């Protein structure tokens, strides 16, 4: 007799390739190998580097930024335009918070050219898909998470670089994707051989609490643009 139970969905899990953990985390959260590409992330980081270059030069003539904003408006890239304005303000104020990488010459991507994109690239590429990354304030209780309105999570944690059995003592950062599939949450860390079952909502909050107990761990909520605007990712 045929079973009435639904067939469990197959969990998509991208494994680590070079330093493309940000790309893997994004595709794992979206459960789609074609959601984002290295070419997309590279294009965005090049664009952001141009903006950073302008800011570093301490331009007093804002005509360049006005022309850029006008171009983005004509391209219907309103969200990217607003993002660039926010980014400009952040760099102007010399923000200390940069999640990854730790490269000096390039604030958005590893100097090796192999990936390890920072949070600005992730935020921008998500906007191109009608989504947003919301930084979670660790002072908040995880009970305030409105899980039904959150597509997934991306964690940023300290990491070491390995080459075979050799561990290279360099300070790096690593992106990890987490999301629910059929109401079960999975750790989709690209460094794992296979997805790791976390459990249901209670187990998820325990998992996140343990990760966030480290002062060097940061959490991003991946939500739709509508949820971000309405701040519907939290309760109360």
UniProtKB/TrEMBL annotation:
Enzyme Commission (EC) number: 3.4.19.12
What are the TM regions of this chain, as residue ranges? Answer: none
Q: Mainly localized where?
A: cytoplasm
Give GO terms: molecular function aspect only.
cysteine-type deubiquitinase activity
What GO terms describe the biological role, i.e. biological process, of this protein?
protein deubiquitination; proteolysis
Q: Which residues form the active site?
A: 21, 174, 189
Cite the entry's keywords alphabetically.
Cytoplasm, Hydrolase, Protease, Ubl conjugation pathway
Q: Indicate where this protein resides in the cell.
A: Cytoplasm, Cytosol
SMART domains documented for this protein: Josephin
Q: Which part of the chain is the Josephin domain?
A: 8-236
The answer to whether keyword Acetylation applies is no
Q: Quote the function comment for this protein.
A: Cleaves 'Lys-63'-linked poly-ubiquitin chains, and with lesser efficiency 'Lys-48'-linked poly-ubiquitin chains (in vitro). May act as a deubiquitinating enzyme.
Protein name listed in UniProt: Josephin-2
Which species expresses this protein natively? Answer: Ciona savignyi
């Amino acid at each position: 007799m045929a079973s009435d139970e639904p067939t469990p969905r197959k969990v998509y899990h991208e494994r680590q390739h070079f330093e493309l953990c940000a790309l893997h985390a994004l595709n794992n959260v979206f459960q789609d190998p074609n959601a984002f590409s290295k070419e997309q992330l590279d294009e965005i980081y090049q664009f952001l580097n141009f903006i950073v270059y302008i800011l570093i030069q301490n331009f007093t003539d804002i005509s360049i930024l006005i022309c850029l904003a006008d171009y983005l408006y004509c391209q219907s890239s309103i969200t990217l335009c607003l993002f660039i304005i926010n980014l400009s303000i952040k760099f102007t104020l010399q923000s200390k918070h940069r999640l990854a990488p730790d490269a000096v010459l390039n604030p958005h991507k590893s100097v090796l050219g192999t990936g390890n994109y920072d949070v600005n690239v992730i935020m921008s590429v998500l906007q191109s898909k009608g989504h947003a990354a919301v930084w979670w304030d660790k002072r908040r209780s995880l009970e305030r998470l409105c899980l039904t309105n959150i597509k997934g999570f991306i964690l940023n944690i300290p990491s070491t670089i390995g080459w075979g059995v050799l561990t290279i003592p360099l300070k790096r950062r690593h992106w990890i994707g987490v999301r629910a599939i059929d109401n079960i949450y999975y750790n989709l860390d690209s460094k794992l051989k296979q997805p790791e079952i976390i459990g249901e909502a209670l187990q998820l909050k325990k998992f996140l609490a343990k990760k966030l107990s480290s002062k060097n761990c940061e959490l991003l909520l991946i939500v739709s643009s509508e949820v971000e605007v309405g701040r519907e990712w939290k309760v109360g």
